């Protein structure tokens, strides 16, 4: 079967914690049987905010040019596209900055992320109570979807890796369900992020129970490997598709020109190498 799926979450060395060239990522996408790859490097932020984990605003044109060169290099082999992973930081006044940034270039996929491990976020919102921090995170996840800035909510239970010993799904479930009700009302997609298998609590983000709650609300799902090195492009996609199927999903999604595209899970599985 012809390739169908995209790697929808991948990075470049401009974020300062990824390795390899975009060409190496694109070649791995081809080897995995993917149709394309959307680079979604961490967005620039103003005033040096979290600069150690992202490109600077001045480097953004270089990022755009780098992906354009890779797209040209792989024309006819792999469909290379430009996207962003943008941080949602409520209370920091960044929404106008992100809105302008997202309009500056024709992006294909914009991920919205609440990175609760970021020092500025943690300094503002962590009061020493891990459960309260989890509740705040899911409130902000809902606000992220409601902002209208993003296509997909990235790694949507990432907070469980902040303090795995304090993660009790049954306890936090009412907060998760309230957040999912609000996210479902927006029509924004959510991600199943395969990199969770490599984190402190080794399961995908989200885990299977949350995935089932998402399916009950008909929230569309995009697969991303969150690749910070070439070998991780398309990693564990078959496993992720199996999780989606087990949760009751029949389709998986990706974005091009910020418009959601759907593929039957059975076809997606058959297309992978």
CATH superfamily: Metal-dependent hydrolases
Mean pLDDT across every amino acid position? 98
Range of strand content: 15-25%
In the CATH hierarchy, the third-tier topology is known as TIM Barrel
Low-confidence stretches: none
Number of helices: 9
**Assembly annotation:** single chain
How many angstroms separate the termini? Answer: 10 Å
| Main beta-sheet strand count, sense and barrel state | 7 strands, parallel
Q: Give the C-alpha Rg.
A: 17 Å
Q: How do the helices and strands follow one another from N- to C-terminus?
A: EHEHEHEHHEHEHEHEEH
Number of strands: 9
- Assign a percent range to the helix content: 25-40%
- Describe the global form: globular
Structural class of the helix and strand makeup? alpha/beta
* CATH class annotation: Alpha Beta
Placed side by side, the strands forming the largest sheet appear as: 1-2-3-4-5-6-7
Can you walk through the features of this model?
- This protein has a single domain (6-271), classed as Metal-dependent hydrolases (TIM Barrel, Alpha-Beta Barrel).
- Helix 7 links the parallel strand 6 and strand 7.
- It is 38% helix and 18% strand.
- The model has no long low-confidence stretch (mean pLDDT 98).
- It has helices at 22-31, 60-73, 95-104, 119-125, 130-146, 169-186, 208-216, 237-247, 265-271; strands spanning 6-10, 36-42, 79-87, 109-113, 152-153, 189-193, 221-224, 251-256, 259-264.
- The protein has a 7-stranded parallel sheet, with helices on one face. A two-stranded antiparallel sheet has the order 8-9.
- The protein has 273 residues and is α/β, with parallel strands linked by helices.
- 44% of the residues are buried.
- Helix 5 packs parallel to helix 6 (169-186) and helix 7 (208-216) crosses helix 8.
